Amino acid sequence: MEKLPKLTIPVIVGIILLIILVSKSSVTIDSGHAGVLYQTFGNGVVTDEPPLGEGFHIIAPWNKVFVYEVRQQELSEKMQVLSSNGLEIKLDASAWYQPIYSDVAKLHQEKGEDYLQRVIQPAIRSAARSVVGRYTPEQLYSTKRDAIQEEIFEETKKILDKQYVQLNEILVRDVTLPPTIKDAIERKLKQEQESLEYEFRLVTADKEAQKVRIEAQGKADANAILSASLTDKILQDKGIDATLELAKSPNAKVVVVGSGDSGLPLILGNN
């Protein structure tokens, strides 16, 4: 009975040492992450092998593992940039990015864990300054928001090329102009809209007047043609034809031939 405690203590110490050794010799990579292995007694960062994937890994206790999130992430940036005429523009944008999985070791070796501040933010700010500087405040306010979003994306992507980072999208959420400039642009746009509406009303009124003139001219031309074709002889013939038709009617009437105007028959009925 006296030997049992003496045997138990070394066992307990051994278990504790084993737990410490296992904890120092293993690493668990969460989903959406990758591990970069650093060999203390080797060549440092291991770049010629794939990164450690998700799950449990056993490593030498003297080595280290640096874990990187390789899922798509979002960076929000609020910047102050200058337009083509030197006015200060506030730009609110977001970038969707992620480390390239196969190059995460090189990213760690060359850029470090703070690659966001070292690489991505400077690239976005540089591209935004370059793109916005090509446009006037009026263009930025009205028609060019989609254009600058696409151009900032393309220029940022060029800068990040070979930086071991993948840029997925640039979203421009808001472009804020100085209040006085914004008010002036809105007044100008309102005046232009009113001018376009006035011109439209003038064009509509002119077309309506042309329509009325054409209809009136058509009626006048028709009357002139009709008047030119109605001779006294034709009118007399028409009157005779009408008289003969009336004579066929069973209604009581008196027809006086040659007693009407221009010698036309005069028809007297019961009334």
Observed structural traits:
single chain; 271 residues; alpha+beta; Tetrahydropterin Synthase, Chain A; 4 domains; three-stranded antiparallel β-sheet; 7 helices; 10 strands; Band_7; Band_7/SPFH_dom_sf; Prohibitin; transmembrane
List the helices and strands and how they pair.
Layout: H1 3-24, E1 26-29, E2 33-39, E3 44-45, E4 55-58, E5 64-69, E6 73-82, E7 88-99, H2 104-110, H3 115-132, H4 137-142, H5 145-160, E8 165-176, H6 179-229, H7 232-247, E9 253-256, E10 266-269
Description of the structure:
This protein is an alpha+beta fold and 271 residues long. The protein folds into 4 domains: 3-69, no CATH class; 73-177, 2-Layer Sandwich (Tetrahydropterin Synthase, Chain A); 188-229; 232-269, no CATH class. Helices cover 50% and strands 24% of the residues. The protein is built from 7 helices and 10 strands. The protein has helices spanning 3-24, 104-110, 115-132, 137-142, 145-160, 179-229, 232-247; strands spanning 26-29, 33-39, 44-45, 55-58, 64-69, 73-82, 88-99, 165-176, 253-256, 266-269. The strands form 4 sheets. It has a 3-stranded antiparallel β-sheet with strand order 3-2-5. A hairpin with a 5-residue loop joins strand 6 and strand 7. The N and C termini lie far apart (155 Å). The model has no long low-confidence stretch (mean pLDDT 79). Keywords: Membrane, Transmembrane, Transmembrane helix. Its main location: membrane. It is a single-pass membrane protein. InterPro entries: Band_7, Band_7/SPFH_dom_sf, Prohibitin.
